[in-house]
Amino acid sequence: MTKGWKLYDQRLAWVLVAPVLLLLTLLLLLPIAMMTVYTFFTFVTAGVESAVLTFDNWKEFLTDSYYHGFLWKTVRVGAITAVICAILGYFPAYFIWATTFKHKWLLLLLLIVPFWISFTIRTFSWIHILGEQGLINVVLIRLGVINEPLPMLYTEGAVIMGLLHFLLPYMILNVYVSLEGIDRTLIAAARSMGCTSAQAFREVTLPLSIPGLGAGLLLCFVLAAGSYVTPQLLGGSRDALFGNLIYDTIMGQLNWPMGATLSIVLFVLLGAAAAAYSRYMGLSQIMKGLSA
Amino acid sequence: MKLTTTKRLERLNERYANGDVSRRSFLTLTAAAAAATGLSMPWMGRALAAVSEVRFDGWGGVVQEAIDKYAFQPYTAKSKVKVVQGTFGDENETITKIKTSKPGDFQIVHSSGVNYYIKYVNGGFNSEINEGNIPNMANVLTAMIEPFRKITPKLSAVPYDYGTTGIAYNNKVISPEEAKEKGANLLTDKKYAGKVGGYADMTTRVWYAALQTKQDPNNIQDMDAVWAKVRETRDLAKKFWSSGAELMDLLSRNEIVVTDAWSGRVAALQQQGQPIGYLDPAGSYAWMEDMLVLKGSPMAECEELINFMLDPATSIAVAEGQNYPPSLDPTKVKLTDKIAALPAFDPTGSMKSLTFADPLYWAKNEDAWTKQWDRVSKGA
Amino acid sequence: MRAEHPDREGRWAWRLTGAITVCVYVFMFAPILATVVLSFNASMFGGFPLTGFSLRWYEKLLTNGPVLDAFRTSMWIALVTATVTTLLGIMAALALVRFEFRGKQAINTLVILPALVPETILGVGLLVMIKAVDQPRSMTLLVLGHILLTLPYVVLIVQARMVGIKRSYEEAALSLGAPRVSTFREITLPLLIPAVLASVLLAFTISFDNTSASLFWRPAGVETMPTQILSMLKISISPEVNALGTVMILLTVGIPLAGGLILQSLTWFKAGK
Q1: What is the DSSP string of A191-226?
Q2: Which superfamily, per CATH, for B50-162+288-354?
Q3: Which is higher by pLDDT, B103 or B185?
Q4: Which CATH architecture has domain B163-286+359-377?
């Protein structure tokens, strides 16, 4: 079959990527295109829409402060989560990289283990910590610190906590991968030239680990802003994020055109974040982080 | 394996010839059957064995357990037709699923009355039943059938039971006198802030807000006042529940002390010895439930099952189990004392003492109000 | 760095780093441990305090039909997904690493896109599309969706490994007249095995664990393990859910760990040879 083809013939490459390309076109590109078309459809009544083209859905989105509020809230929660992840995640990444501990692999393994535990289970396990009968409240009441259980579950704080729990390993791995790429002799050189360890960190280690930190921030932001299950399980109904709005519009109100509009909005927003990032950093860092 | 597949294909072909299966799903099923010859996957069995199975979707919990125990299990024992069951807490979600499924994936739904009936009819999901095949319909209250007939002269659903959404309260905290005096306003009583509950459902929320603002829920004049009351309850509420099981859980664990509640579930709690009182305030939200047959269902089997469910002995046993009065006419069929004692029970059979939602009025406002409720519930 | 004559400042910073690291690890595992502990609680309610040791929630779990059904369904989906995705991923990675062709960069980006687009959007998109072509939701759709979700990870893993395999091995075999297919089978594949196993495992766990998108895609009456847990949670935080969680943790952590160990001993065995 390949007689007469060059060793690295382009045609063979296309044969190899063809199934993946077909899959991505059918399941990713086409659906997004269809969704875009759907945003111009007319909502008739719950569960029924017609292919009469209209700008109503977009008009509604653009003029209604309700959606803007949730969009802003989603961006805010996403950003807060990403920043806390970066701050909290940098220390362990640095520690694992710098430690002379013999069983470093164990620390790394423990970072990967959460990826294997069902996301739903990891999320609902927070109910046991934050709930009225959760660990914190039960201990505090036993100690006599409080009389009434503190309302911690079903708040925005609980949602951010759940998101942190889910996203921290992503951040740590991203930073760790980029720290691993640093040539350690650079630091030794800096130290031998009289830098304090703080200076060496500030001048050498930190700047060189920025790409990993950036990739982690983007990933955490995108995943947090796109989340649906965490706010549903740990938040009250006010703590909904944009993903919940989309789900409720489609599954509850049965308003598909509006649901498609909201989906496209979220897609464009997160796409813009990723595009802005890749402009400065290139996507290759994210790939490194994802495959770590 | 080979033999059974051939048989299934034959059966399928028969259904296709009878027009039960659309051409597309026939081809899909044929392909699936062919594939199954080599590789039997768990989900394919379900699609292929459709004829000896009927799918039912209900409200779960004690209600569905009662239906299963007193209706489905005896029916399966008698007819060898298996009833595959699913549950839901929000019927709208079920409608979305039906919308994106192939006809026949969902068959019988334990639907909540005419308000929802309209939605299925508008979506074209319902399937006309042959009333001649359900002789037991003769015993069903005319007052319950009429509203359905107004929507479609030829029915796709048969009323099965009814109940009310009244006020349930913990009588260790709230005395019956206090409950009686305050009625629907208990849900906006600041004294119980953080201990209030409610059904996370637009109709229930708007209905009770209408009662709180002294308006007729079937002809609301001041919607702003209604939404203000909905917000008031929302701010006092610990949690809006979304399934009967969750309602029972919250009440029995004292997480909430007052909530609007389904009469049958409260009766179940009382039978367990929980200190829960129940009150139907004036204009309490009454509803009925029906067995609705969807497009693509094996009609003969579904009709036979519904007829079996309406058999007085079955219907009474189910009613006692699920704590909702049956749709049987008490002037024609002798009902038991236990049923007579159930909340919401109407001994006259005229249904005049109960306030149902006017389906046309609610259908007209449904989309806008659902949207608004969605927003209010998210803090708007 | 610790070894490199730390100054006082550095020592303090290092201690702080260590302390925060410990806190982060506790943060990550405490809730999970709480779930495991509570699954053995005798109490009716799924919360603290502990009232006694009991295995009855596990017994109850074993007789819970819907849970077992959901488990079987998820196993099937995850198996099919892992197999197909790994196959497709190897092919794509091969092309993306070994070949130069126009549009390669675009395809590279396209391939990782499903990992960056929120699942809610992927979920809605696929639903809108099958509705537009008037197809019902089906098991095939759910599996295809899972393949889409796992593809980026598999391609990335295989790519990373493939970069490390020298072209010259393959080229040598080819120049000696070996056909392409057998070159791949005899040379490339054995060297790729760790990546392949890692891909299968990862694709399996991602598929088995997928929640958000599956909520949109699952056909009528089908529950996967996570959606089943979600609907159980909707009713109440019962101890049974905790038991289920514990079983799931044992399975999903146990399988990859065992896989990794086997892999380790295999390479060790080979090296010893």
Answers
A1: HHTT--HHHHIIIIIHHHHHHHHHHHHHHHHHHHHT
A2: Periplasmic binding protein-like II (3.40.190.10)
A3: B185
A4: 3-Layer(aba) Sandwich (3.40)
